[in-house]
Design goal:
TIM Barrel, Hypothetical protein af1432, eight-stranded mixed β-barrel, 17 helices, 50% helix, 14% strand, elongated
Length: 402
């Protein structure tokens, strides 16, 4: 069990009624920015506030910041539409892909909050996406915003850093309808206990969902092995349920209700919550490169499943990422025997391919030549597959901002 700390700053409407809370991850009782990356912080905020079984006031909105990668991964869909306000950070770029994704959030009913710079950046062409725009009194002249507020009646404008009654009155007169700042209430550091599922359980669930997407019984069985994971799945099903007249208590019922897409999003969120991406991002990139290479090189060999080859590459650095022996990792995962042999002893066709990838990484040309000969592979085709995988990994890493 771990203690998750977060800052909770209330947001009020014109009548000073509580409209919502902004939630920001913190590492302790002091209101300091965390040293972990944005995706990990966001996932922990979501996990402890919405998936830990703690009661939350569903009449309030909860403002949570998301990175571009988390938005593209559809992480917000794990949270009830009426409760979550998606805050698009200044680091997010107005790419066609992200704009399209935000349009899907708007269509689903989410409120999207943008910062004041959306009026002076590429986001200006997409102002229809935003339901709330936040303007800081500390850095902006509020009077300059009167025209914008008048011209965009469908957008609610939030004045932040409000520290006096005079500032509140002025902002209200100018047309601001939401307010945040020390004048109303200082941020409160709160903490909740959260029992996180083991990363092994989450990875095992990933394997089963991808390998047997239509086998509800097997998916339910693997989820049920980890009490915490099962609890999160049932909790998620209940908070996403449109009606709370009858609670979902049966594991299989929860799995069926969520469906594959929601389950994948939930498990991705929980994996992010349990791992510090800054500490192992280079290992993750290396594992992604191996996975893509092995998947693409797999068809060059007979009797080799590209999807299984992908899993072997993806899991080949788990011992370093988790800080445990590979033997302990493998015996807990539902992998086929050839895949287990590859990870444990670099033996078998998957093991040979993994070993080949390793020697390409280190430019061991003699070993590359001998392995290609052993596996009856053309060295030129292998190197072409590796360069293609390297390019795809770099593109993916840039998109995910890791």
């Amino acid at each position: 069990m771990s203690e998750i700390f977060f800052s909770c700053q209330p947001i009020f409407n014109e009548g000073q009624n509580h409209w919502g809370n902004e939630l920001l991850f913190r590492e302790g009782q002091e209101n300091k920015f965390p040293s972990i990356d944005e995706d990990t912080a966001t996932s922990r905020i979501l996990s402890v506030n919405f998936l830990s079984g703690k009661e939350f006031d569903d009449s309030l909105r909860y403002v949570v910041s998301f990175s571009e990668a988390a938005l593209l991964d559809e992480v917000p869909f794990s949270i009830p539409v009426k409760s979550l306000v998606i805050c698009v950070t200044a680091k997010c770029n107005a790419t066609p892909m992200l704009v399209k994704q935000l349009e899907s959030y708007r269509k689903a009913g989410f409120t999207i909050l943008g910062e004041s710079d959306v009026f002076t950046s590429r986001w200006q062409r997409h102002l229809h996406l935003f339901g709330v725009i936040r303007v800081s009194i500390a850095t902006e002249n509020l009077s300059d915003w009167a025209e914008w507020i008048a011209n965009y009646p469908d957008i609610r404008f939030l004045a932040s850093k409000v520290e006096s009654n005079e500032e509140f009155v002025l902002a209200k007169q100018l047309g601001f309808s939401l307010f945040q700042g020390y004048f109303f209430e200082q941020p409160v550091i709160k903490s909740h206990s959260d029992v996180a599922p083991s990363v092994i359980s989450l990875l095992d669930a990933c394997i089963v969902i991808n390998r047997s997407p239509h086998d509800i019984d097997e998916i339910t069985e693997v989820i049920s092995r980890d009490v915490s994971l099962l609890y999160k799945v049932v909790t998620s099903a209940n908070i996403l349920a449109k009606s709370k007249k009858k609670a979902i208590t049966n594991p299989k019922q929860a799995v069926v209700y969520l469906g594959l897409d929601s389950l994948r999003r939930l498990i991705s969120l929980l994996i992010m919550s349990n791992m510090n991406h800054q500490e192992c991002s280079h290992l993750q990139n290396a594992a992604i490169l191996r996975a893509i290479f092995m998947q693409q090189a797999g068809p060059l060999l007979s009797d080799l499943d590209p999807d299984e080859a992908f899993l072997v590459g993806a899991f080949s650095l788990l011992d370093a990422m988790l800080g445990v022996p590979m033997e302990d990792v493998v015996k807990q995962l539902s992998l086929n025997q050839p895949a287990k042999q590859a990870l444990l002893s670099r033996s078998g066709p998957y093991g040979d391919l993994l070993e080949l990838c390793k020697h390409i990484e280190h430019a061991n040309w003699d070993r590359i030549e001998s392995l290609c000969e052993k596996m009856a592979l053309r060295e030129r085709a292998v190197m072409k597959a590796f360069e293609k995988a390297r390019y795809q990994t770099q593109t993916l890493a840039a998109t995910m901002q890791v």
